[in-house]
C-alpha cells in the first residue's frame, strides 16, 4: 500500500514539474483597438460632427436617416484611437484586424459592416472628402446600412483621426 501511495505521489510531483511545459489558459484579451480605447479619451465633438455630416449628406441625397449605434460608436472610437497612435489612416488595425474582426469582438453582426477612415483638421472636411464621387461616397449613401457609429481622436501630431462604421444589425 505504501508503494502505491509513493508511486501516486511521484506521479503528481512529475506532472507538477511538467506544468510549465503546457500552455496556460488565460482570459481572452480584447482586440488591440479596445485596449487602446481605454487609454484614449477621443474627441466626442468631432465624432458627433462626423455623424451629423453623414446625416446631412444622406439627407441632401434623399437617403434615409441612420440610427446611431452604441456598438458601432465603440468600434469607430477605438479604431480612431488606434489610428492616432499609429499615425496613419487605415482600415487595418495595428494588430492586423479589420472592421469585421472588430464587429465580432463587440458582438455586432458582421453582415454589411463597412468602415470609412480619414484624418485632418476637421470632421466636416473629412466627410466632404468622402463625398467626392467614388467608393466612399457610395458607402455613405448606400441603402444597405441602417446604423452608424463614429469616433475621432487627436494624435500627437495635432491631427484628428476619423472613423465611421456603417452597419446593418441583421441579427
Give a brief description:
With 171 residues, this protein is an alpha+beta fold. It contains 7 helices and 4 strands, in the order H-H-H-E-H-H-E-H-H-E-E. The model is unreliable at 1-29 (pLDDT under 50).
Structural commentary:
The chain is of the alpha+beta class and 171 residues long. Helix content is 48%, strand content 15%. The chain has seven helices and four strands, in the order αααβααβααββ. A four-stranded mixed beta sheet has the order 1-3-4-2. Strand 3 and strand 4 form a beta hairpin. Helix 2 packs across helix 4, helix 3 runs parallel beside helix 6 and helix 4 packs across helix 5. The chain is globular, with a radius of gyration of 23 Å.
List the helices and strands and how they pair.
Layout: H1 2-18, H2 32-39, H3 44-60, E1 67-68, H4 70-86, H5 99-106, E2 114-120, H6 123-130, H7 135-141, E3 147-154, E4 160-167
Parallel strand pairs: 1-3
Antiparallel strand pairs: 2-4, 3-4
Helix pairs in contact: 2-4, 3-6, 4-5
Q: Which keywords apply here?
A:
171 residues; alpha+beta; 4 strands; 15% strand; globular; disordered N terminus
User: In what range is the share of β-strand residues?
Assistant: 5-15%
The whole-angstrom Rg is: 23 Å
Give the low-pLDDT segments.
Answer: 1-29
* Largest sheet: number of strands, sense, barrel closure: 4 strands, mixed
What is the share of helical residues? 40-55%
The helix/strand class is: alpha+beta
Total strands: 4
Mean pLDDT: 82
Query: Which geometry do the CA atoms define?
Result: globular
Distance between the termini: 61 Å
Order of strands across the widest beta sheet?
A: 1-3-4-2
Question: Would you list the SSEs in sequence order as H and E?
Answer: HHHEHHEHHEE
How many alpha or pi helices? 7
